[in-house]
Design a protein that fits this description.
By secondary structure, the chain is of the alpha+beta class. The chain has twelve helices and 17 strands. The strands form seven sheets. A four-stranded antiparallel sheet has the order 1-15-16-17. A three-stranded antiparallel sheet has the order 4-5-6.
């Protein structure tokens, strides 16, 4: 089966050209995957994390999706996040999921997961990139409540403490929240790292430096109290340290919490062979006694592409070649008919892989991987960041790359301009703004 590129939609929006043809084609497929999973339900726009199966949208996934979709469909992110504003609890907590047809929601009985911090990030990312005044005003109160609620979960150690209400989804405060009979709560490094970052996002969104100070103070507590002889603790639960080393080590690096020495130590550990399979970074290394290539939906040793992409973004500033390699590992099964990976559809980003075999064990089209791919390329490898509608571009150059172009980046909502960027190694980025996209001239 050959990939029919004429079926790919959104081809000309955020049109990327790099020296990596695998990356280029996968980037186009990512835009197409996004266009096929944005849906309108009775309660509004959303992107279900299993669109073939149900109409549920998830808080964390919507936040992650938004930071990538902002480069493709600027109108979508605030509309998708709106249901979480509407269902936000009086306390300020963002719920876990909402059924977009019935309105039923659940928080799994947890005091906090990653929904609050990723909601805050999604809102500020959209604001800084697109200066969407209508959305900014609509979400201001919700952003403040979400940030204040995170601070209210602070324990005596100056760290956020999560409380389990059972096991699996009701006992795991982490993205790996579907492992049966498992608890991950307490002073969880992942949640604390996301929250520290999110508080700074709230400070920018609300122009309130008290949240920045709180985020920086939380970061310092993570660096000093959750660091453990070369890696971060997974968590400290009820006073007991859990030093298990998982792929979750990436979060303090990704969210700018780790200091330089900690960053280098963590990335060195994640590079070791026991963490890697041909399809990407394992959630748990083979050297761990709990490792299994399929158990827990691959969350105890399988390989999830979104984790590989988080790693790529985290490592890009110090090792661009490693970042590119990781991105291309995710891209190859999507675009290469000879990849040898089983149970996939060419042109679609799969959900997760067996920890030892080249086989997708999840959905053939995972809605959250495609937006994360776009974000990891644009903000990880190419070094885009945004402030008040203006980009800063500090590319991380792989060894044999010398030029990259991106055309027709949509910026602004609802008033829109179009940005073309040309990057040449050793030169300042060349930015050209247009009132109309380039294809309007065809």
């Amino acid at each position: 089966m050959e990939l029919n590129t004429r079926r790919i939609s959104l081809r000309q929006i955020c049109d990327l050209n790099t020296p990596s043809e695998v990356l280029n084609l996968a980037f186009r497929c990512a835009k197409d995957n996004i266009s096929r999973t944005m849906r309108y339900y009775s309660l509004g726009w959303g992107m279900s994390n299993a669109p073939h199966h149900y109409c549920i949208v998830v808080g964390r996934d919507t936040g992650w999706m938004g930071v990538g979709i902002d480069y493709v469909a600027p109108w979508f992110s605030p509309l998708a996040l709106d249901i979480f504003r509407i269902t936000q609890k009086p306390s300020g907590q963002i719920v876990e999921y909402v059924d977009m047809e019935t309105g039923y929601w659940d928080d799994y009985g947890l005091n906090l997961g990653d929904n609050n911090p990723l909601y805050c990030w999604g809102l500020n990312h959209h604001w800084q990139m697109h200066q969407d005044e209508n959305a900014h005003e609509r979400f201001r109160t919700s952003m403040r409540r979400a940030a204040e609620y995170m601070l209210e979960q602070m324990g005596k150690n100056g760290l956020i403490v999560t409380v389990p209400a059972g096991t699996a989804t009701r006992g795991i405060t982490s993205w790996r929240n579907i492992i049966p009979d498992y608890v991950l709560a307490g002073e969880v490094t992942e949640i604390n790292s996301e929250a520290a970052f999110a508080l700074i996002q709230a400070a920018e969104y609300l122009e309130d430096d008290s949240f920045r100070e709180a985020g920086e103070a939380l970061s310092e507590q993570i660096r000093t109290k959750l660091w453990n002889d070369g890696t971060f603790l997974l968590t400290r639960f009820r006073g007991e340290d859990n030093p298990q080393v998982t792929g979750d080590q990436v979060f303090p690096v990704l969210f700018g919490v780790a200091d330089e020495q900690q960053r280098d130590s963590v990335l060195k550990r994640l590079r070791l062979q026991d963490f890697w399979t041909g399809q990407g970074l394992r959630t748990l290394p083979t050297s761990d006694s709990e490792y299994h290539p399929t158990h827990g939906y691959g969350l105890l040793g399988g390989s999830w592409p979104n984790l590989t992409l988080w790693y790529a973004a985290a490592v890009a500033s110090t090792d661009p070649d490693e970042a590119l390699k990781s991105i291309e590992i995710v891209a190859k099964p999507v675009v290469d008919p000879k990849s040898g990976v089983r149970n996939i559809n060419l042109g679609e980003f799969p959900e997760y892989f067996h920890g030892e075999q080249p086989e997708n064990l999840g959905m053939k089209l995972s809605p959250w991987v495609a937006p994360t791919f776009i974000w990891a390329v644009m903000e990880g490898l190419l070094g885009f960041s945004w402030e008040k509608g203006q980009p800063t571009v500090n590319p991380n150059w792989p060894a044999d790359w010398n030029e990259v172009t991106v055309r027709n980046i949509p910026v602004g909502n609802p008033t829109r301009r179009w940005l073309d960027v040309r990057l040449v190694r050793g030169e300042e980025p060349q930015l050209e703004w247009r009132d109309e996209p380039s294809w309007a001239e065809l």
